[in-house]
Each structure stands twice: as structure tokens, then as C-alpha cells.
Amino acid sequence: MRIGSRLYCDHAATTPVSARAAAAMEPWLREKFHNPSSLYEGARAARQAIDEARDVIARAMRCLPGEIVFVSSGTEAANLAIFGAAAGCTNRKRFLFSAGEHECVLKCGPRLNSLGFSVEKIPLTSDGQMDLNALFDAMSDDVCMVAAMSANNETGALNDVATIAEICQKFGALFFCDAVQSFGLLPLDETPDATAISAHKIYGPKGVGALRIRAGAAIKPILFGGGQEREMRAGTENVAGIVGFAEAVKEAMEDPGRAERIQSVRDAFVQAMRIEAVEWSVKNGLPGHAHFTIRGASSEAMLINLDRLGVDASSGSACSSGSIEPSHVLIAMGMSETQAKSALRFSFGAHSEIEDAMEAAKRTKQAADVITRRIG
């Protein structure tokens, strides 16, 4: 995707708000500003808009509208699922997290420990998937919840959500699935007890997400106040954001060929980057993800050079104090710290073109050549 002379290749981080979503939001930011919890005409219209948006998202998630809880982000959705499960668990004191989970899941661990729960990480395979044999071996009747994302935000690796759900059901454990990266690109598995999605990864606005909580799942609220969202998430709803979210979801549902088009762009990039120094991390993953390492070139140096050349990409790693730390995901996949510190993530989206991918590959090789003087 071109923005002036720059190439945006970081759709896994965020996507631009679509024209349709922005237009749908605009009235609710200005003249239709009313609080949906009030009783007069404008407020009732705001409540109806939320209800209609809930219906749209429920259809996309193949669930009941009453199972959708609007929240502020994928992070809040994960926290609601995890700590809501902890509040609902009585005799079960163990949480099992895939070692490749997003920080919004993993960083719940210390707080769970302080509440008297134990947290264990289930290892990844070399392909970046949760090790199902290790999960089964770790399961017992005292597991409260298992957390495993549908697609990894860094590598794009896909988990076998249906099998994980079967294992959880066998032991009576709850299953939380972070579907933020895959929603709108791949068919959604409706078997988890709780599923998180986020608007800004699907061409909607930032600051709004949703958690689907399966009817009957023992997940309790963690915010208390005015009783919004059927008392599952207190706080005045972001009406404009919710409306924009639903419009973006409609666009995705009306565009069944989107994933195939995005994959064709990604594949063009991968083909153009098939050079000796490049090692690919995941064979089969999300349609738009290209995750790889370049021998002899650190992620940090590459990203600086790419920025100078007008390419927006990512290492997919956490940045602390200005230096890129080795990714916990890649380490869990068995990579060395040196390999992990050479990782790059390019992710393409609905507005990316094959020409953009080819130009991005050209500039990436130029950036690497500056560092290694070996890649042409």
C-alpha cells in the first residue's frame, strides 16, 4: 500500500480506516452524540445503532447477538476473558497459555499468580503452533482456562483451534482464543468459549473491540458501574467506534475474495525475496504475513534502513528502551537469540498491490545490502 512515496507493509500492526467505516462513524461523532443509556429520542437511536452493530458482528462470528460484548480493544477483551474466568472459577486453579501468545495474555500471569492461580506455558512447535501433545499432557480437571490464539501476530502461524477446543471440552476447561489477527481473513471457529476481535485490524477505528462469550460460559465481569453491555462491561459505549467496527465487518463479509488477493501480493513479495541470505519462519500462515530473517542483518539496523528508504515494516518484537529485544515467540519456536534479532515481518492488506510488494522487496534488498554488502 502506497502512502505518497512510502510503502506501508505493516497491516498486522494496524490497518487504515476504510472510507465506508469513516463515513458511517461521522454522524455519531457530531449531531448524533447522545448517550445510549439515556431515554430520549437521540439516545434511543444510539442504542439502536449499537444493537444493529451487535447483530452484524454476531453474524460474522456465527453466534448469538447477546454473546457479543463491546470493549475498547483486543487487550481488554483478553483481560476480560482471563480475569473473568478467574472470577468464575471455584475449584480450578491452573491457566495454560500458549508460549506464543500476545503480551496482553502473557502479562496477565503475574496478576493471576497473586490471586492464587498458577500459570503454565505450553511450548510451540518449530512451525510456531501450540504443541497439542504438550497441551494434552498438561491438561487435568483443575485447569480453569487455556489461551491459544488462532493466528500469531508476529509469524502468522495458525493454531488448530478446533482440536484445542476438543481437548478443553474433554477436561471441562474454558478456552479463550485471540482471533484479532485472523478475523476477516479466515473462517472463524465458533467453538472457543471466548473469542477476541479488534476493529483496527479489519479497517475499522482504533479504540474498539469485542469479546464473544459463549452463552453459559463461567466468565464474570471485571469492570463495574452503570451496567452497560448486559452488565458484562461497564462504561459508556463508544457508539461511533462500534458503528465503524460493524461497517468494516460488513465490508469484509461482502468481499469473500479479499484473503486471496492479499495472499497473491504476499506471494509476489516472497518470490521476489527468495535470495540466499533469507530464511523463512513459517510455511503456512496468514494470507498477508511474510516473516523471515536475513543472515548478517539485525532487525534494528534493517528497520532503520527501511525507514530511510520509505518502507514501513516491523520486527514483530517488543521494543524496550530503544532496542529491539528477541521475540519470545521466535525463541519459543527454537530460534537462537541471534536469529530472533534478525527477524522481519512484512504484512500486506486489502489496499496492497503486487507492484507495491515488488518495490518493497527491491528496497528491502537495498537496505540489506547496505548492512551486509553481500546481498544484491
Note down, in words, how this protein is organized.
Helix 1 runs antiparallel to helix 8 (239-253), helix 9 (258-272) runs parallel beside helix 13 and helix 10 crosses helix 13. The chain has two domains: 2-16 and 256-372, Aspartate Aminotransferase, domain 1; 32-253, Type I PLP-dependent aspartate aminotransferase-like (Major domain) (Aspartate Aminotransferase, domain 2), CATH 3.40.640. It is an alpha/beta fold. It is built from 13 helices and 15 strands. The model has no long low-confidence stretch (mean pLDDT 94). The strands form four sheets. A seven-stranded mixed sheet has the order 3-9-8-7-6-4-5, with helices on both faces. A three-stranded mixed sheet has the order 1-2-12. Strands 10-11-15 form a three-stranded antiparallel sheet. It has helices at 19-29, 41-61, 74-88, 103-106, 109-114, 132-138, 161-171, 239-253, 258-272, 299-308, 328-332, 337-340, 354-372, and strands at 2-3, 6-8, 68-71, 94-98, 118-122, 143-147, 174-178, 194-198, 209-213, 278-280, 289-294, 311-312, 319-320, 323-324, 343-347. The protein is globular, with a radius of gyration of 21 Å. Strand 6, helix 7 (161-171) and strand 7 (174-178) form a beta-alpha-beta unit. It starts with a strand and ends with a helix.
What's this entry about, in short?
Helices cover 38% and strands 16% of the residues. The protein has helices spanning 19-29, 41-61, 74-88, 103-106, 109-114, 132-138, 161-171, 239-253, 258-272, 299-308, 328-332, 337-340, 354-372, and strands at 2-3, 6-8, 68-71, 94-98, 118-122, 143-147, 174-178, 194-198, 209-213, 278-280, 289-294, 311-312, 319-320, 323-324, 343-347.
